[in-house]
Structure formats: structure tokens, C-alpha cells
């Protein structure tokens, strides 16, 4: 499975961005993947942001609840992250990640497939 993110940009605080992730898996395969977004700020560990399961069940980190929305399109093999109310502390490289089966873990090492990342910069 190959993943390619896009949509990162520089925005003002309070602004919005939509990140996308395109997966190389076939349609039937993509539907079986647990998909997540992570982020990593300079000098910090990679943090889990949000996850969407094979039945579109979503979970979010507390720091993005109510501001970010994760979604997937199984007909296009894509993953999205709609971000609003952006804050300077949201500045990071954002990565999409995939694993087979249930979304039972939110730690980076549980995800074998990663994109290259897309940079989001939020200025105050």
C-alpha cells in the first residue's frame, strides 16, 4: 500500500485546510484498511490525530475534537482531514497511515504503511 498526502499549506490562525491522502490499494483492499492521520512537530514525537475504521467509525485526539473531521471515500481510495479553527500549535507535518483490520491501536508502530507527509504551518 502506498500513500501520498497533499493539501498542506501556510494559513493564519483560525483558518481552515483540507488534507488528502491517496492510497494505491485496490478498492476492495482499501475498504479493509484502518486509516489514520498523525502529526509531528519539529523536535517532538509523532502524535496520533484521528482514525477512521472500515465501517466509517471515527475517533479523535482530544486536542482536535470539534475542529477536525476525518473522512474516507472508498470509491476513490482517498482519505481526508478537514481542519478548521487552526491554531499555531497545529503546526506540524501531517502523515496518513494505514493498517489492516481493526483500528485497535493508535500508536505509530502499529501502522506499517505511511505517506511522506504534508506540512501545515499556522501563524498567529
According to DSSP, the number of beta strands is 11
Task: Give the rounded overall mean pLDDT.
Answer: 95
Task: Point out poorly predicted stretches.
Answer: none
Order of helices and strands: EEEHEEEEEEEE
Instruction: Classify the secondary structure makeup into a structural class.
Output: mainly beta
Calculate the terminal CA-CA distance, rounded to whole Å: 37 Å
The largest pleated sheet is described as: 7 strands, mixed
Radius of gyration (CA) equals: 13 Å
Give helix % range. Answer: under 10%
Total helices: the number is: 1
Shape: globular
Strand content: over 45%
Description of the molecule:
The chain has 124 residues and is mostly beta strands. The protein is 3% helix and 49% strand. It is built from one helix and eleven strands. The strands form two sheets. Strands 2, 4, 5, 6, 9, 10 and 11 form a seven-stranded mixed beta sheet that branches. It has a four-stranded antiparallel beta sheet with strand order 1-3-8-7, with no helix packed on it. A hairpin with a 5-residue loop joins β4 and β5. The longest helix has 4 residues. It is globular, with a radius of gyration of 13 Å. It starts with a strand and ends with a strand. The mean pLDDT is 95.
